[in-house]
Amino acid sequence: MKFQCSPGQLLTGLLHEANLSIGQFAEMSGIEHRELSEILDDSRQISDAYAGLIGKIFYSPGFWSVRQAIWQLQNRGYYEADRKAGGHA
């Protein structure tokens, strides 16, 4: 499975669809506004702690942890290297 957008881009889209501002989501989730902005612009990764907070509102903590892990692997080249080697990524 290859994702076309980062976890931050996905979360940005979900906020837009839910008509939530960054400030509203920060307050709802308990994530500091600055930290949430960094997640949304992909300058901060979604740690397990952030996944737990985001997952209380959208999907689940596991969803965000896995999404972040796959995104990191994809962007480090492991995903494509495994596919070329015959892996099941």
Outline the structure in words:
The chain has one domain (7-84): lambda repressor-like DNA-binding domains (434 Repressor (Amino-terminal Domain)). Helices cover 64% and strands 0% of the residues. It contains six helices and no strands. It has helices spanning 7-17, 22-29, 33-40, 48-55, 61-75, 78-84. The mean pLDDT is 89.
Short description:
The protein has 89 residues and is mostly helical. It has helices at residues 7-17, 22-29, 33-40, 48-55, 61-75, 78-84.
How do the helices and strands line up, and which of them pair or pack?
Blueprint: H1 7-17, H2 22-29, H3 33-40, H4 48-55, H5 61-75, H6 78-84
Q: Report the radius of gyration as a whole number of Å.
A: 14 Å
Write down how many β-strands occur, each being a DSSP E stretch of 2 or more residues.
Answer: 0
Q: What is the string of SSEs from the N terminus onward?
A: HHHHHH
* CATH fold naming: 434 Repressor (Amino-terminal Domain)
What structural class results from the helix and strand content? mainly alpha
* Shape descriptor: globular
Helix content: 55-70%
Q: Mean pLDDT across all residues, rounded?
A: 89
Unreliable stretches: none
Strand % is under 5%
Q: Major beta sheet, specifics? A: none
Annotation field: number of helices? 6
Per CATH, the architecture is Orthogonal Bundle
Give the domain tally: 1
CA distance, first residue to last residue: 6 Å
